[in-house]
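Sequence in, structure out. Go.
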Amino acid sequence: MDNEIKIVASTSNSGVESKVRTNRTEYADGSYEEIRVEEVEGGFIKTICTRKKDGDDWKYEDKKSVHFEDPLLDKTAAGIASRLEQIMKNM
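Output:
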């Protein structure tokens, strides 16, 4: 099951607005992988949270990385064409 949660203009306690998108894939055994991208000044912070069942135990792993381009953007030819079309319409 894929869920996408969009928070377009969330204001934190410090008054700074941020845009966060989350894609989460859940599995039958209760494990999941969640990819969260937060847009910040100057780029994006991508966090991958993985929760996996390993026998009777659970493994938890979080990885963070910084990107200059949105890592969730569709980089296929169709995705690029769609974004260019939107830019042309807004001109």
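Check: The first strand starts at residue 2 and ends at 11. The beta strands are 2-11, 17-26, 32-40, 43-54, 57-67.
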